[in-house]
Specification:
mainly alpha, two-stranded parallel sheet
């Protein structure tokens, strides 16, 4: 009983801490967004709603050039990352997938993260289906026993792959 209370308290503290961080991060953004529509130049006095500042912003050549450059850099960075990532996939010699029965995975996630089995099942259902992963896999390691057994199987697979000369 004590372990369950400790788990609930731990989960509450974690959730509270997360909310605190999110408020700390997003409150200034929300404040600046609201104040950007203030007709007064003062941040402490509300002068009424206006879009004047946005009109001035978008009519400035300097700002529009900076916006264009920012968007261009973001677009090019994304394209380059996709190209490099796609090329890097060709360098991966083997794909190994570790699997476990759905119910076992749900149970393990719920115990590890202190969440309900329903939440753990939602997490798993949001991931790439196991059938898709195993269809692309060169090796499948079933995780139906202990961590030690999985580690032993993984080490044996690594040793075999090194013996074949496919990884260093």
């Amino acid at each position: 009983m004590m372990g369950k209370k400790t788990g609930i308290l731990k989960r509450f503290v974690q959730d509270f801490y997360l909310v605190l961080i999110l408020v700390f991060l997003y409150a200034p953004i929300a404040t600046m967004t609201v104040l950007s529509f203030n007709s007064s130049k003062s941040r402490t006095q509300w002068g009424g709603f206006t879009t004047r500042w946005y009109t001035e912003l978008f009519s400035s050549n300097t700002i529009m050039t900076a916006l264009y450059n920012t968007l261009l850099i973001a677009f090019l960075s994304s394209i380059i990352a996709v190209i490099i990532g796609t090329a890097a996939e060709a360098e991966c010699d083997k794909l190994c997938v570790v699997t476990a029965p759905f119910e076992v995975s749900v149970e393990r996630i719920a115990a590890r993260d202190g969440i309900s089995p329903e939440m753990a099942a939602r997490r798993l259902n949001a991931q790439t289906p196991e059938a898709v992963l195993t269809a692309r896999a060169d090796y499948i390691l079933p995780n139906t026993s202990t961590r030690e057994a999985l580690a032993k199987a993984a080490n044996e697979l690594c040793d075999a792959l090194i013996g074949e000369g496919c990884c260093a």
